Amino acid sequence: MSTQGYRMSHTYVWNVEKSRAHELIHEMLSNILQEQPKEYLPLQELIASMNRRGRQYHIHTQKKHNSWSKYIKMTYGDIEDFLQDYRFYNVVTEGTKTRVYFVKDYYTEEEKTRRFTKDKEWIFVDESHT
Fold first, then answer.
1. pLDDT on residue 8
2. Does the pLDDT at position 105 exceed 70?
3. How confident is the model at residue 1, as a pLDDT?
């Protein structure tokens, strides 16, 4: 890990490169979810588990910011939005409960990149040039 900070916003300097952080986040989340006998975890439990497991990585010089959930929020926005960007995380909300499932069949190196679109986005394709 580089000792030089990686600037993610004007007030936060992270001690991890964005590509390495991205890799570590998926590694932690997928491992946590695959270890569950229920095949899912409530979102808050998943966040707490990720933060506990991620303590070994010193991603920020200030202890109060050395949290993966804070990193995701500052870098990608809401953690639910982050999870929904990938096909291998299935986020299900029923009433006030939000659960996260891991879909092992979709977990490949190619799928670790963000989705091109989300279900709520539209892409218009001009077929007249094909």
1. 44
2. yes
3. 44
User: Closest by alpha carbon to 79, among 105, 45, 123?
Assistant: 45
C-alpha to C-alpha distance for 121 and 77, rounded to whole angstroms: 17
Is 46:28 a contact under the CB 8 Å cutoff? no
76 within a domain of the structure (yes/no): yes
> In residues, how long is the chain?
130
Both structure tokens of 25 = 């986040």
Domain interval for residue 59: 18-119
Q: What three-state secondary structure class fits 26? A: helix
- Number of folded domains in the chain? 1
Please name every residue paired with 94 in a beta bridge, in sequence order, or none if there are none: 97
Residue with tokens 């986040």: 25
- Cα four-point dihedral sign 117, 108, 88, 18: negative
Q: CATH code at 87? A: 1.10.10
Over the stretch 33-83, which tens digit does the pLDDT of each residue have? Answer: 999 888 799 999 999 999 999 888 878 766 666 788 988 998 888 899 999
pTM: 0.73
CA 102 to chain centre: 12
